[in-house]
Predict the structure.
Amino acid sequence: MSEPEEKRGGPQVLARAEHTISRAAMSPNALKVLYRLHGAGFLAYLVGGAVRDLLLGRRPKDFDIGTNARPQQVRQLFRNARVIGRRFRLVMVRFASEVVEVATFRRSPEPPEIEEGETADVLAPTPDVDEYGTPEEDAWRRDFTVNALFYNIADFSVIDHVGGLADLDAGVIRTVGPPRLRFAEDPVRMMRAVEYAARLGFRLEDELADATASMHPEIRRAAPARIAYELLESLKGGSALRIFRGLEDASLLGHIVPEAHAATVSGNGAVLWSLLASADERYRKDERVGEETLLALLFLPQFLAALQKAGERLPPAGDIERLAREQLEPAMLRLAISHYRGHVVRSSLLLLTRMMAPAKSGKHVLRTVRHEAFSTAWQVMHLLAEVDGRYRSALAAWEHPVSQALAGRAPAVEATKLGREEAARGRRRGRRGGRRHNRPKPAGAP
Ligand code: ATP
Ligand code: MG
């Protein structure tokens, strides 16, 4: 991958006084790890996104470290460290409030493939020694130039082997090396390019944009778990609206979440974009939105559209359940989303439809609140009511009884005509229930 550095005149190095990175903006734990590696005679660099974000004056999400120490050598320097990963070993140094990842410089251009929580057996074969590389090779295997910058703790300099500093200045996302080659190696990089461009307000370099325009179907080759991971990252960081618009513009969304793409082409795009904008707004206000909630938002517009197509009134519960399954199950399988998480996302949509009509009784409220998908459904309901006024009164009707239930009190629900009828039917028919004829109107029904 790497071309000889002499040809390009060596790396660009910014001395301490020539850049704005201050150690005060770094995690004290990451600094501790850097200093200890350095003290033991190893190279110790802050790498990847943290350098990029610090140079841009943004707060890094995490502080990853690169070193020429081998994983076992790193582990021996820290009591609180463990080695994970089968092929590429990574050392996780655990502190009370964060985990600092230390990776040995390597040269393989292949994507990361570390499995969550995987612990390397001491007896497991060590990776081919040839996989390890120099800092320069490590920069060249990275995805984008702005992600390949190093901060050297030995002299507080920034080291740029790939032209990342110029691209940071110009606001450009450019692959390290030819985009076609890098996307063929790992199509997830197409998603990541869009993600960074949107998050940082950068533009995609022309050749990169052209490569994506012709290679987007290749994203289907990527491991589902990696796509799902990037999707969640995209939903979580407060730039979901811009990222998903970018994924749609780059023709990627149709491959990875066809349900959301369908919303944008069938006139429900506005709902999707508003929901994502509301989620972003919550992030800015430091309000936690659950991952299941964020996933549910991607499917909500088409689910609501299907509900409305079914008629002016809400279909019977069984039909709604079937509809939710039809809409969500293929997606959950495609994205390798866990059975439980899929269940929560699907159930949250069902609870949401339940809350589109007034609560029938205190028991009804308690049953709803105790459901494992309730907190997800409740967040989705709030976001939906925020973007579509038609759901506001439905939400308002549930708010008081729900807060009573959550506070451990019996929810007071005004007995509705429907509730009384249901109760009477329930008494007559026992617990089998029956098909309801007098079904409530969905709040969103025309
Ligand atoms: P974030 O702020 O989202 O954490 P990040 O740049 O730190 O951004 P990570 O996904 O945490 O991104 O990855 C850390 C670094 O590993 C990246 O900056 C990049 O250098 C490298 N990297 C990650 N994924 C890939 C990939 N698919 N191909 C090549 N390099 C990658
Ligand atoms: Mg990171």
About this structure: The CA atoms of residues 9 and 161 lie 10 Å apart. The radius of gyration is 26 Å.
